[in-house]
Amino acid sequence: MISAFYSFLDSLKAKSVSLHTLRNYSIDFSKFKEFIETHKQLPTTPKITLHMKFQETSDLPLSLLTKDLIRLYISYLIEQGKSKRTIKRRLSTLKSFSRYCLKMQLLFEDPTENIQGPKLPKELPSPISYEQVEILMTMPDVSKYTGLRDRCLLELFYSSGLRLSEITAINRQDIDFEAALIRIFGKGKKERVLPVTPCAIRWLHHYLYHSERMSIQKDTQAFFLNRFGTRISPRSIDRKFQHYLQLSGLTGNITPHTIRHTIATHWLENGMDLKTIQALLGHSSLETTTIYTQVSIKLKKHTHETSHPLGK
């Protein structure tokens, strides 16, 4: 089973699946493997035999991957108090792996077929106001190289609604300063070209000038660098973002992805159509984008209730 999973990961790498996704798949499978190895004495049925001599091999037989085992695993996760989102994701990993095994004829039936994970409540994004975005923008100390870089990151998040993984993947040749355009490779390496606001372009140009003068660049392609001159990681950006959030005094669960939700909502409120927003955000389905119409209605209702003299 382990060797089959490594082959599965290799097939995903060949499809240019993001490092973040590969890491999540690896963690999920590791937890599943842990469950099998620590529950050798689980009750068995004619279809499932977990009481095996695991010491004979470092691998686990694929014959263990059955509907009964997966149902037991889901029950175990529920008993452990894992969130619905975690259970859903771990089942999704097993489904993807099972489909791969089926395709490669390592399995002859899909053990995850008709097994449904817990239903997740639909959560509406919680955008922040333009005034709050402005406050956040002013937090980095732009007299320092890292502060200048961080201001650029914040500007670009709000300018183009980028994902965290997309912004770290930007290379120098991806930005056309003259045309104020940026080339982005989103999920599944899908390419899209986005406009950048004049303000963001000015900051990006300013940052590029100073980064070239610093002469710390070791990664010759990466646009956003850490202090060692290599490509900045999503985790580093997230840490810096939380630091500026604390400095700003803004409260609530605000993340870099919140800025993406925010600009999408602001675009909609300012008259942009859903198809254009879908293209800018890189959503494969318009259904994903329509959630912002619900957010916009919710915000308008709240504003109406708090502003109307009879609404209080």
Automatic annotation (TrEMBL):
GO terms for molecular function: DNA binding; tyrosine-based site-specific recombinase activity. Keywords: Cell cycle, Cell division, Chromosome partition, Cytoplasm, DNA integration, DNA recombination, DNA-binding. The keyword Zinc-finger does not apply. Pfam families: Phage_int_SAM_1, Phage_integrase. It is found in: Cytoplasm. GO terms for biological process: cell division; chromosome segregation; DNA transposition. Residues 1-102 form the Core-binding (CB) domain. Residues 123-305 form the Tyr recombinase domain. One of its GO terms (cellular component) is cytoplasm. The active site is at R163, K187, H257, R260, H283, Y292 (o-(3'-phospho-dna)-tyrosine intermediate). InterPro entries: CB, DNA_brk_join_enz, Integrase-like_cat_sf, Integrase_catalytic, Integrase_recombinase_N, Integrase_SAM-like_N, Tyrosine_recombinase_XerC/XerD, Tyrosine_recombinase_XerCD. HAMAP family: Recomb_XerC_XerD. Site-specific tyrosine recombinase, which acts by catalyzing the cutting and rejoining of the recombining DNA molecules. The XerC-XerD complex is essential to convert dimers of the bacterial chromosome into monomers to permit their segregation at cell division. It also contributes to the segregational stability of plasmids. Forms a cyclic heterotetrameric complex composed of two molecules of XerC and two molecules of XerD. Belongs to the 'phage' integrase family. XerC subfamily. This is Tyrosine recombinase XerC. It comes from Chlamydia pecorum.
